[in-house]
Amino acid sequence: MSISPSTQSQPVVASVRAGAREWLALAVLMLPVLLVSIDNTVLSFALPAISQALEPSGTGMLWIIDAYPLVLAGLLVSMGSLGDRIGRRKLLLIGAVGFSAVSIAAAFAPTTELLILSRAVLGFFGAMLMPSTLSLLRSTFTDRDQRRLAIAIWASGFAAGSALGPIVGGLLIEHFWWGSVFLLAVPVLVPMLVLTPLLIRESKDPNPGPIDVVSIVLSLAAMAPVVYGIKTLASEGFTLVGVLAIVVGVTAGVLFVRRQLRRPVPMLDMRLFRRASFSGAVLVNLLSVVSLVGFLFFVSQHLQLVLGLSPIGSGLVLLPGLATMIVAGLVVVPIARRVRPSIVIPIGLLISASGYGLVSLSGGDAPASVLMIAFVLLGLGIGAAETVSNELILSSAPADKAGAASAVSETAYELGAVLGTATLGTILTASYRSAVVLPDGLSAAQAHAAGETIGGATTVAGQLPDALGEQLLESARHAFDSGVALTAGIGVALMVCAAVLALISLRKVRG
Questions:
Q1: Closest to 232 in 3D by CA, of 433, 76, 491, 421
Q2: Angle between helices 144-175 and 20-42 (to 10 degrees)
Q3: pTM for the whole thing?
Q4: What is the separation of C-alpha 151 from the centre of its chain, rounded to a whole number of angstroms?
Q5: Domain locations in the chain?
Q6: Each residue's pLDDT tens digit in the chain (511 positions)?
């Protein structure tokens, strides 16, 4: 995202208010956003059926889950830069065709290996979709007030997809086979392929500079090993492989930054991070997603494994929070015109912190009604804060580098999702393992499974006599809820830290 003298000397284009065509274009751009966010949560409901059909090993099951985010996170910046070069609409269409075709292949994959390969290729094409959608919003909505509203709607697509994932997954798995969760891409992306050329104008960087293969390789080598290392440490504890992966990723990241600073036309202009509005907004996005994903991680288990709700019932408990997140993102738009981001964002994040605080004060043993209210508070704050922070990320970057800037925002989302599960999930798992008390009479395999996760304890309890199974479940649920209370307390701290960070880094940014 270079800011060269020629770029700086270009005349400023007057903003033009969007009409019906532009708002229809926004509706089209929401389709891949909904799809990718639904995919983040829908797969978890297909894993038991996949396990029975393909009989993958434990490592194989892990790779079925991880192959997609590893490739996606590693290629977001490169694909954002590629969209700046060849055209963001063109890249969006290529990604949609590829994602649809590979989704069909994944749905009918006959082996674990082919399913893992399909998931990796889905990550490749998924990395083309997300930066393109956000950067096309920048070129479609030149009026800042309208762009802020468009970004609010765009951000609500992520929230809608994440909350709808469990409901859609539960319905599909209840009535169809496991591959149906992958076929969602076809009815969503086919209309987009038809309407995009009709409604969305092409945009690109007029002076993209030469292709930098070394930077592309370094960006992938920086992101993928770090994501893999975090997931390895979360699932297996402190291991040499996990530590080495993070070291490799950090080293590649340092080399990537040094290369960008030295090149006359860098793939990613690191000087943007010197702008408080840009770097502060990126970090707010990162910490917000960490908290949101961490909350969903333990709440989805608590609702199903502790309270005994079905997947569909659990999703319905989260729906009021989803609606609140969408409404908050829209309502904050007129407020953000007049109130500084350094006020709006911290207030929103503190409201989210109160949602975590409600769970923490309950001691983890919270009924569904309390969790519903907590998610409403979390959604209220994050919906408002992320609308403003996403708009700051785009407005801080030159228009001709919108794709790469969008990729930075998307990378913050993906890293936040990984860190939310890895950090808060690891703390929750470690707390459970230390607190659970296993009754006598379990086999070695049963004791191992029940001592690892509450899901394992629930499965083992079904294999035991009623009295012994109930004893195990009571202990497992108590251990899990004690970990939830601890994790929720950390969530409060994360939200408060994000609020302080926003207050300091955005203090000079006007409303």
A1: 421
A2: 40
A3: 0.73
A4: 16
A5: 19-159+175-201, 213-266, 270-506
A6: 333 333 333 344 455 776 788 888 888 888 887 777 777 666 766 766 777 677 776 567 667 777 787 787 778 777 877 887 788 888 889 998 999 899 999 999 999 889 999 988 998 898 888 777 777 877 778 777 777 778 777 777 766 676 677 677 777 877 888 888 888 888 888 888 888 888 888 877 666 667 778 888 888 888 778 777 876 776 666 788 888 989 998 999 899 889 988 888 777 777 777 777 788 888 888 888 788 877 877 787 788 778 888 767 777 888 888 788 888 888 887 888 788 888 889 999 999 999 988 888 887 677 888 889 999 999 899 888 888 887 787 776 666 565 566 667 766 776 676 667 666 766 777 777 778 888 887 877 788 777 777 777 877 888 788 888 888 888 888 888 888 888 888 888 888 988 998 888 888 766 5
Is the distance from CB of 334 to CB of 393 less than 8 angstroms? no
If one counts every other C-beta atom within 10 angstroms of the C-beta of residue 389, the result is 32
Q: What contacts 498, CB < 8 A, 6 or more positions away? A: 283, 284, 287, 288, 291, 349, 385
Nearest 5 degrees, angle CA 36-CA 38-CA 39? 65
The one-letter code for the residue type at 1 is M
Residue whose entry in the numeric block shows the structure tokens 């409303």: 511
Architecture per CATH, domain 19-159+175-201, reads as Up-down Bundle (1.20)
| Cα(90)–Cα(267) distance, integer angstroms | 19
Q: Which CATH class is domain 270-506?
A: mainly alpha
The dihedral formed by the CA atoms of 367, 368, 370 and 373, expressed in degrees to the nearest 10: 180
- Among 218, 280, 214, 225, CA closest to 254: 218
Same topology between domain 19-159+175-201 and domain 270-506: yes
Sign of torsion over alpha carbons 219, 222, 227, 228:
positive
The two structure tokens encoding residue 155: 């951000």
Gyration radius (Cα) of the chain, Å: 23
Q: Burial letters for 42-80: b for 16+ Cβ neighbours within 10 Å, e otherwise? A: bbebbbebbbebbebeeebbbbbbbbbbbbbbbbbbbbb
Listed residue (102, 92, 66) closest to 185, CA to CA:
102
